[in-house]
Amino acid sequence: LEEAAFQLQQIFRIDISIALNILGIESMRAGHCRVAFTCFKLAADRGYSKAQFNVGLCYEHGRGTEKDLEKAGFYYCQAASSCHPMAQYRYARYLLQHGPGSPWDRHHKAVTLLEQAAVAGITEAQAYLGVFYMRGLQPQEKRGLKYLQLAANSGDAQSRFHVGICYEQGLGVQQNLAEALRQYQQSAAAGNRQALERLQA
């Protein structure tokens, strides 16, 4: 009986968190940012990862509360530890730009989180990793190209442009000007100005 009561308590707790998070989203859409933040915070403090991510967004952009990147990082970290893919991406970016600790530890943890988010299908993480591996101190061109192609296949025109550069210059792949042209055309068709300029050149 005690176990059943505990299970019911857990379900009730989760349901309240889901409801609060939904209420927060609806409040944000209606322009009631302070109400939205309060709802997100209540759900986040109950351990609901989607709400923790939303609180992080509020702190990062100053919606419904004062802008505070340290608090944003804290809530992104909490959501990321529950395997929330977009929070993994945001926390990784936070670590690389503002995070505490030694640069090596931050860098290593950030790359691990970016890899997890990219595998989960977060296009932003794929694109970021693609450029990161191409431009790092020790470039890993094949690895970079792999992530750029994933992001391009998810519809990211900028990554498609970078894939074109890889084919044009032979970075991580055999040089193929016809394929570079095709990549630039697709990127330009999706609205990428750099690809259009490259085609004209």
Care to describe what's here?
This protein is mainly α. The protein has a domain of 79 residues: Tetratricopeptide repeat domain (Serine Threonine Protein Phosphatase 5, Tetratricopeptide repeat), CATH 1.25.40.10. Helices cover 78% and strands 0% of the residues. It is built from eleven helices and no strands. The chain starts with a helix and ends with a helix. 42% of the residues are buried.
Protein topology:
Blueprint: H1 2-29, H2 33-44, H3 49-61, H4 69-81, H5 85-97, H6 103-119, H7 123-135, H8 141-153, H9 157-169, H10 177-189, H11 193-200
Helix pairs in contact: 1-2, 2-3, 3-4, 4-5, 5-6, 6-7, 7-8, 8-9, 9-10, 10-11
Organism: Chaetops frenatus
Protein name: DELE protein
Pfam families: Sel1
Name the structural class.
mainly alpha
What is the chain-wise order of helices and strands? HHHHHHHHHHH
CATH class of the domain at 122-200: Mainly Alpha
Per the CATH scheme, the topology name of the domain at 122-200 is Serine Threonine Protein Phosphatase 5, Tetratricopeptide repeat
- Number of beta strands: 0
Compute the number of helices.
11
Distance from first to last alpha carbon: 75 Å
Summarize the amount of helix as a percent range: over 70%
Question: Which regions have little confidence, pLDDT < 50, spanning 5+ residues?
Answer: none
What's the architecture of the domain at 122-200, going by CATH? Alpha Horseshoe
Instruction: Report the major sheet.
Output: none
| Rg, alpha carbons | 21 Å
Overall shape: it is elongated
User: Beta-strand percentage?
Assistant: under 5%
CATH level-4 homologous superfamily of the domain at 122-200: Tetratricopeptide repeat domain
